[in-house]
Please model this.
Amino acid sequence: MPPVAVRVLVLGGTTEGRALASACAAMPGIEVISSLAGRTRSPLLPAGEVRIGGFGGVDGLAGFLRDRGIDAVVDATHPFAATMTEHAVAASALTGVPLLVLRRAGWAEQPGDVWHRVADLATAADLVPGLGERVFLTTGRQSIAAFAGVDACWFLSRSVEPPVPPLPQRVEVLLDRGPFTLEGERAVLAEHRIDVLVTKDSGGSAAKLGAARERGLPVVLVDRPPLPLATETAPSVEAALDWLAQAG
Ligand code: NAP
Model:
């Protein structure tokens, strides 16, 4: 067996994380280990080695990087997984293992969009009652608590796993995993007579935004948390592979 040239840790839980792991696994001279938080019971598993569960904070991650002889880390976590990214930045500084943050671009407003950008979920919860009664909530299972006190609205909450309480008084839970099609999103909005869509600015597949635009519905878009200063970033899997080629 030829020696492994570069051993990469991919912090995953996203489509990009899986795509990067597949690309790395297919490249000679790269060994890839993907890490998942363990939030979903049947996660889509990336190619290559996979470990599941938290590291135990910055020190735990730094220990993992040293113990496993990791040469480079790509943080491909979701743009809203801010704690994991903070920990990755700190562990990289502690160990000297280079870190790249892979972040797909956020969404850009198009003609016909009626967007309300807000800084956080609490502001979104304050805003929705003034925009409509029937709310399609797509911010993830851990975000629903922010809307628990909004009694003036009825919510359709969509997530892969059941939402984490407390829940709003009037809520219907829709368990589903993307990718979602424009036709499918049109049907959800029509069937549930949705007045307002709430989403994080995750980027990527935007079928729900297209369906909301067609119906002229207001969209409350929660902005991404800022990245730690001086973090090296790449917008795509291809750019991350170029960075890895240089890191090797
Ligand atoms: P978070 O708040 O940033 O992280 C909380 C803790 O979870 C971290 O300190 C770490 O525990 C552990 N963790 C998070 N991501 C991990 C990973 N990839 N591998 C190992 N441990 C991880 O994270 P989150 O927002 O709960 O997201 C958890 C996972 O779901 C991430 O992998 C993310 O990519 C994915 N995801 C998140 C969202 C979202 O909206 N936040 C959406 C889609 C997918 P320790 O401190 O013990 O290491």
Remarks:
- The mean pLDDT is 95.
